Amino acid sequence: MYIAVVGPGEQATPADRQLAEQAGYLLAAGGAIVLTGGLGGVMAAAAAGCARAGGISVGLLPGDRRTAGGPDLTVSLPTGLGELRNGLLVRCADGLIAIGGSWGTLSEIALARRAGLPVLGIGGWRLADRDLATETAETAEQAVHRILQLAGG
Question: Which of 38, 42, 81, 144 keeps 20 to 30 A from 18, CA to CA?
Fold first, then answer.
């Protein structure tokens, strides 16, 4: 199973990073392959957690340099697509965990919902009357448990 962990890059809060690291670890421990956008913040933290658990992480990078990927990624794929790589990331995933919020995160949530993928949100984006995610969670443990159920694991 391939689960994307998305969220802010360098603007990620320490709490966002901690949740992402826990999610990456728990996903890998649960046998999932972790997909990210390959850069810093939430993406790097999820890859670090995955590496700590001995799992596999794939970073779909926006640019054309493999070296731009974080050091904990197992695989770095330079797409050369800029922000359009968000759509590729979503289409490669069986489910998505969104941690925190940024414009890129919002686009990934929208694309995943449009594609019918389950989206678990921890913090981040809300409409005035509802969450944008399929479901929300308070902890990384809750999010990982539920996304693995929703994505078929």
Answer: 81
Entry field: residues in the chain:
153
- Dihedral (Cα; 53, 27, 97, 66), 10-degree rounding: 50
- Supply the CATH number for residue 79's domain: 3.40.50.450
Q: How many domains does the chain have?
A: 1
> What is the 3-state secondary structure of 46-98?
HHHHHHHCCCCEEEEECCCCHHHCCCCCCEEEECCCHHHHHHHHHHHCCEEEE
Q: Which domain holds residue 48?
A: 2-150
Q: Are strands 75-78 and 135-136 parallel, antiparallel or unpaired?
A: unpaired
Residue 58's alpha-carbon distances to 14, 23, 37, 126, in angstroms, are: 22, 15, 8, 28
Q: What is the DSSP letter of 125?
A: -
Six token digits for residue 112: 């995943």
